[in-house]
Amino acid sequence: MAAARKVIITCAVTGSIHTPTMSPYLPLTPDQIAADAIAAAEAGAAILHLHARDPKDGRPSPDPAIFMEFLPRIKQSTDAVINVTTGGGSNMTVQERLAAPIVAKPEMCSLNMGSMNFGLYPLLNKYQAFQHDWEREHIERSRDFIFRNTFGDIEHILRELGEAHGTKFEFECYDVGHLYTLAHFLDRGLVKPPLFVQTIFGILGGIGADPENLLQMRRIADKLFGQDYHWSILAAGRHQMGFVTMGAIMGGNVRVGLEDSLYLGKGELAHSNADQVRRIRTILENLSLDVATPAETRQLLALKGADLTGF
Fold this sequence. Notes:
This protein has helices spanning 30-43, 64-77, 94-104, 133-141, 151-165, 176-187, 211-225, 240-249, 273-286, 294-301; strands spanning 6-7, 9-12, 47-50, 52-53, 60-61, 81-84, 108-112, 116-117, 146-147, 168-173, 195-201, 229-235, 253-256, 263-265, 268-269, 290-291. The strands form five sheets. An eight-stranded parallel beta barrel has the order 2-3-6-7-10-11-12-13, surrounded by nine helices. The chain has a two-stranded parallel ribbon with strand order 1-16. By secondary structure, the chain is of the alpha/beta class. It has ten helices and 16 strands. The protein has a single domain (6-117, 146-308), classed as TIM Barrel, CATH 3.20.20. The chain is 39% helix and 19% strand. The longest helix has 15 residues, at 151-165. Keywords: Metal-binding, Transferase, Zinc. InterPro entries: Aldolase_TIM, BKACE. This is 3-keto-5-aminohexanoate cleavage protein. Its cofactor is Zn(2+).
């Protein structure tokens, strides 16, 4: 990577991990998701990573109709790159996870690079009661759940979205082996540079949020992809700000948002996604790092442009 660079800020607005009981500030309805995403873009996020929620009770939803209640509104109000999940939620089939992206044909989608255990169940120790019955079940389910992303699944998503619609990917790598899986698809020509490699730390079942792991993931990515990738970092929960700051100093891009952490600081809930974006932007600028605009991000990642989406 060149020394003179622009740092891309991704904001993951709601996700499918956290539940309504955990924070009153978690955006759940289409109105809330749209407002929070637009505010995050105004604060400096160049990429908005988006999931949908059932507006009745806040549970994760794959319903394209719900996505279409907020995707056009975000596009009309900001020039940020819209990145639609293909990870969905723990009870969704691959077909359900693809339903909204195939309709939306976005510039970017997330793509998880391997099947894994994805343990949320330790969160049960933090909450005595839940607002909705589904929340406890959702968290407990992760004790015996495998987040499925087989080689066949990955090939299917690459063809359905990449080849068919020109969508590029945020390649989500939760461990070192996921980097090698991505290299496998690069060698086969099913993905093409520049790659946007999101290394993820601190999820139970994936690589831990230890500084030496950050260094190792960087070393292996450099070995496998050379100059053909842009590196980004996210870390779960309390590790978020410190870890992404370390990554930025090492030449990476950063991801924040209420999908990854509900907090702004120790014991302090973030009141919005924009709070976290403003915090990391201030840190980056204090480190004399420049933040990438959406236009610069599109150029760096060779995206197709917002005018070629399905919304």
